[in-house]
Design goal:
The protein has 379 residues and is an alpha/beta fold. 40% of the residues lie in helices and 13% in strands. It has helices at 15-25, 33-46, 57-67, 84-91, 114-117, 137-147, 201-208, 214-218, 238-248, 251-269, 297-308, 325-330, 338-346, 358-378, and strands at 50-54, 75-79, 96-100, 122-125, 150-154, 162-163, 166-167, 174-178, 191-195, 277-278, 290-293, 332-333, 347-350. A hairpin with a 2-residue loop joins strand 6 (162-163) and strand 7 (166-167). Helix 1 runs antiparallel to helix 9, helix 3 packs parallel to helix 4 and helix 10 packs parallel to helix 14 (358-378). Bound molecules: pyridoxal-5'-phosphate. Pyridoxal-5'-phosphate binds at residues 56-58, 82-83, 85-86, 128, 154, 156-157, 178, 180, 191.
């Protein structure tokens, strides 16, 4: 039997010919033709004030943390059920991550728990759009405004998802995207910082260019370039940007394909609604992920074993950050972690990738049905 991996990096069309063109341009470092084309694509398509390509979403989050200008000992509110970079970007600045529980329906930061976690040291809220499903942004922005906080959207999984018609990543002061090979649109490693507030655009360019005013210099706005601020190297090479641009050209197609895969799972697993909870996505989200919530950790382990025996590779997800060694050392909880602790043990992600066939989806769904039907017969 042919193995079905969890994820499979793909090429959709012009990736290699655009890389060849980038080489022919004779400019392989950052901010050449393709980086600019990608930045403009995000600005036009998503409607953000300014987009800056980075080498990763981790890099974009680090830039956002610097731009928030927070001091050691200040606090940032974020979910515990997220990737380490959401917290690390701030911990690198000496900031304390305060973890708040998630909503049971979307697994996103529970907006109703945020205010109780705010202290006099809170400066930033970081909503993570898990699985590309939007957080309650109206409520989060309203809380942020009332308490004078900044909002950094971790939209790593959320490219082309929307919230009330607005692209995710364009609602907070900053949005951070990822093009890691496990995301919808890929460039191997890659990311972007979306800046939605003009107070931050100039400094963002400087931080991304090693703390220099090189971007202004190239635009002819200053006559020499020099060290003006803290910063690091957050630019991707033109080779990466060229690959990414080839995927952006066909982004809608990629997203539709993934949405269709998710819809097929939902249809084929509908008869198991008594045995498991299937992900409930709507047309606002980008088909990034398809997950199941099982009734217990034991069932999840048994189902993984059952599927692996048939060369199907599902995976669970985050170890909640508040219970990880570094999370305990650097952060603290700002609410009960009841939902996070419970759901993180029962969630299982099914394979979703661009080249997935209808036969592969059917094989996975059949295997899951067999598992539950034989379990019922044993009971
Ligand atoms: C993938 C991911 C990141 C990190 O993205 P990189 O591009 O690999 O740095 C951060 N946050 C979330 C929620 C992610 O899913």
């Amino acid at each position: 039997m042919k193995p079905i991996p969890f994820n499979k990096p793909f090429i959709i069309g012009r990736e290699l010919s655009l890389i060849a063109d980038a080489v022919a341009q004779g400019h392989l470092s950052g901010d050449g033709k393709y980086t600019k084309l990608c930045n403009r694509w995000f600005e036009d398509k998503l409607g953000c004030l300014k987009a800056l390509l980075t080498h990763s979403c981790t890099g974009a989050l680090e830039m956002a943390a610097i731009l928030c200008d927070i001091q050691p000992g200040d606090e940032v509110i974020l979910p515990s059920y997220t990737f380490v970079s959401t917290a690390n970007a701030f911990v690198l600045r000496g900031v304390i991550p305060v973890f708040v529980d998630i909503r049971p329906d979307t697994l996103n930061l529970d907006e109703n728990l945020i205010e109780a976690a705010i202290t006099s040291r809170t400066r930033v809220i970081v909503p993570v759009h898990y699985a590309g499903v939007p957080c309650e942004m109206d409520r989060i922005m309203e809380i942020a405004e009332r308490h004078n906080l900044l909002v950094v959207e971790d939209a790593a999984q959320a490219l082309l998802s929307t919230y009330k018609g607005r692209a995710l990543g364009t609602i907070g002061h900053f949005g951070c995207l990822s093009f890691h090979e496990t995301k919808n649109i890929i460039s191997g490693e890659g990311g972007a910082l979306l800046i939605n507030d003009e107070r931050f655009t100039e400094r963002a360019e400087v931080i991304r260019e090693k703390g220099t005013n090189r971007s202004q210099f190239f635009r002819g706005e200053v006559d020499k370039y020099t060290w003006v601020d803290i910063g690091s190297s957050y630019l991707p090479s033109e080779l990466v940007s060229a690959f990414l641009y080839a995927q952006l050209e066909r982004a809608d197609e990629i997203i539709n394909k993934r949405r269709n895969i998710c819809t097929a799972y939902t249809k084929q697993l509908a008869t198991l609604s008594a045995d498991l909870r299937i992900a409930n996505f709507d047309e606002d989200s980008n088909g990034h992920m398809y997950y199941l919530i099982l009734d217990s950790l034991t069932t999840r382990s048994q189902l993984i074993t059952h599927l692996k025996a048939q060369f199907i590779h599902p995976v669970f997800h985050y170890v909640p950050l508040h219970s990880s060694p570094a999370g305990r050392r650097y952060g603290r909880t700002g609410s009960s972690m009841k939902i996070t602790d419970d759901l993180s043990e029962r969630l299982l992600r099914l394979p979703v990738y661009y080249e997935m066939s209808a036969e592969e989806i059917a094989r996975i769904c059949d295997a899951i049905r067999v598992f539950f039907i034989s379990n019922r017969n044993l009971a």
